[in-house]
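User: I'm writing a tutorial on reading structure tokens. Could you give me a worked example: one chain, its sequence, then its tokens, then a sentence or two explaining what the tokens reveal?
Assistant: Sure. Here is the example chain.
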Amino acid sequence: MKQLPHHSPPRRGGLAPRSASPGGRSLKESVVRPDEMSRRSSIEASPSRARASRHPIRAASLPVDGASSPAPRAGESSALQHALRQYEELYDLAPLCLLTLDRRGIMLTLNERAARLVALPIQWLRGRPFLVFVAGHDVGRFLELLSRLRHAPGVRQMLEIELCVNDRFVPVQVWMGSSRRVNEIIYHMAIVDLSEVRAIEKELKEALNNWYSLVQSAPDIIMTVDHNSHITFANRHVWGYSARALAGTRLTDYVSEKYRAKLKKCVGTAFTGQPTAFECCGVNGDKRWYSFSFGPVHHDSQTAKEAKTTTVTIRDISEHKRIEQSLRKSREQLREFAGRLDQAREEERTRVAREIHDQLGQALTILKMDLSWLKAQTHSGDGAPKKIKSMIAHVDQTIETVRKIVTELRPSILDEIGLPAAIEWQLSQFQERTGIRGIFESSRGSDTFELSRDVGAALFRVVQEALTNIVRHAGATEVRIGMKSLGNVLTISITDNGRGITRQQINDPRSFGIVGMKERVHRIGGQFNIYSSPGRGTRIEISTPPND
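And here are its predicted structure tokens:
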């Protein structure tokens, strides 16, 4: 059997060969034989047959040469013509390329979309072999399909091949079946142009390759896991295992026992659509720290409902933890150092206050006594008593100044009576000095609450600093200080009706008064909170650590 030579597709406006190599009735040789040219020419010469060759129903309804056909009735002819016109419209509007071929592969009918696919007019294509458009490397497969369908009428088969149109290859999907008409085999073809599909597939493949390259080069470990924590994808070698070896294993098996329940809970939370994360140490036996971040969730591609996998990003945070621990240690050391400075400052204030009280106060008292004696010994006529009286007044004023200095350095009332009395006294002094109304309230038990010397001093200094800030910045007309004990915790609140402050001002590191108060409270293990808004005053709450 001779192989049918492949014909290049005709260019637009050109002519294509109308016959192939001569031979018998073999399928691979059945293109157009010279002895059949006259019969086909007679078909093309007939206008009715030429129109019918565009549509299969009309073509099939024509009589075979030499056979007679009974004339249809008038009503039947009109209905038939109407049905044919409707079919012709649907045939040309079909979104697929539709063709019919005879047993030799000659195109009998085709629609507009098929003509546009090969970029040639329908009138030129009718009566020419479809094989001339099949790419050379697919000719054998196409002929095999024709051969199979020739012996299996009614069977439908699909084949993906390439057509050669205007010197370029066009990928198509061919659906073909066959049927018999008056002892003739007719092939029915539906062709889908895959050009756009292939272009999209190419873009998707390139995007997938780019994504995979990006994922592989990512500094983090990226995995996908299912509901049972089974790893379905890993981007690289990790923990001594290749990405392929990790697939199918449980992620929870690589963390230490104490973290497994938490990791399993995080996986479950991730499948609810909520992002979640946690940190653990000792993955696969090492001593490094890792953070696990879950999300997003990937759904089933068929149902688009059931979540199948979730993405987990694993980052080595050992260095971050080391720096964090170092910063925490440095912060604790600085806080301890600042606390020791405050303690030393309080001790020094106490010592200076005691020295001033004991030495300077005593000396001034003796000086006053001597001046009083001297006044009694002098005569009133020489003016000395008047001068001595003035000196005694100056000494009294100096003694009062010394008493104030001693009190500010370390109020003796704080050590002698306790914190509530010291705060109440400080508030009365504040009201007397500034004219701002002060209200002190204490609940039962707060005045007997036991505090260490350092804690009491720290709380008193915070109250002093709060009152100083009110004078400088609040513009308030009233200050209310409350003390109450709740179990083994003492709470102090300082509230004013001033202009208030913003959250930005509260968190500003340059707000040294607030920073100082926070640090004092934190050093004794207490809680410090500020509640304020512009125009609505400020409330400071201090809570002592539990008194065990």
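What the tokens reveal: The radius of gyration is 51 Å. The first helix runs from residue 37 to 45.
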